[in-house]
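A protein record pairs a chain with a discrete description of its three-dimensional fold. The following entry can be read in just this way:
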Amino acid sequence: MPAVQPTLAPGVRPIEAWAWAMFDFANSGYTTVVVTAVFGAYFVSVVAADAAWGTLAWTLSLAVSYLLVMFTGPLVGAYADVHAAKKRLLMVTTLGCALGTAALATVGRADLALAIALIVVSNYCFGMGENLIAAFLPEIASGEAIGKVSGWGWSLGYLGGLLSLGLCLGYVSWATGRGVAMEAAVPVTMLITAGLFALASLPTFLLLKERAQPQTGPGHAFQGALDRLRTTLRRARRFADLWRFLLCIVFYQAGIQTVITLAAIYAEQAMGFSTTQTLLLLIVTNLTASVGALVFGQVQDRIGHRATLATTLALWIGTVLLVWAAQGTVVFWIGANLVGICLGASQSAGRALVGYLSPERHVGEFFGLWGLAVKLSSIIGPVTYGLVSWISRGDHRLAILITGAFFVVGLALLFTVDVRRGREAALAGDAGA
């Protein structure tokens, strides 16, 4: 009878894995409330005063922050590996994102420059923190259970987003019911989101251990990190399947990031949803996303990383077509819940596969490259959507249909990745080091 494979790495306690997953719970409120559900719509309608360029300005603001993450993410990841500084850097980025989110509460009508500056800073810190927390994954999960543990984080993360959204919806309903204008109620949700982020991240900083050891002696910190990154890039041919997968990520994540960034705008502009209907829709979608991450996280380690991700990308293609064709609210609600399942599953599967294909000694660097790929897709996808809707004079259905093409290309590229060969290369890289 075959031995049962351990889920956690040697020396890792279950409470520490929970503390790691709690960071996903903590930071999900930022994307759910600020990027997806509340502040984006507030930015377009209030800050930009419903100008025709409002949606494009919103996507371009996010694009600037993603460009910054792209250029600095691999370097910061290399620095974290060389100096065993993942946890320290995570504290800095968490503080920056929480403070930046809280400061968004001061943004009002026509405060365009302030809104853009705070979005760039807070979203940059969020993106860097996302890279850093992901780099802990191979340290706490056994090699054959990375998908399962990654699924725990994504599943708990969607519950965190659900809690943030629920608290904000509750406050907005309470405030507007007492005569407070929506324009005045929305900024308070930024304080709620920032406070929950800071509070829920405490278990991570109190319980999660930094197991890595410094790998260089005294010297210029960033120069050492840069030298390490250059060396890794020169070894790229040894990890060809990882690089193929990173290219695959750029395309399919372009579709995912478009959905995350513009879901509320599509619901209101294409389907005529009210703000309350949109918030309720996103609450339900977060529930289905949590289920998708948990279920597919369990399945992934059984049927294989590539098969799991291929299944979810095929579901994405079908879901986009369903949402594009939807004329009534019932079909759109069905499509939105399928989006939730696809979202949780594909996000969990993608992160786990990067960890599976990465050499342990360079995992921070490669998760920095993962973050670079995701942030590049976060520029390509939403900006493409914004440009299509602007050029087509507000045809959001055409924009979402073109978004589906990103999933098609991503699925085609996924079939060029040999996961077994890529894993062998990663293990060989560690043995050689």
Notes: The chain has a mean pLDDT of 85. The radius of gyration is 21 Å.
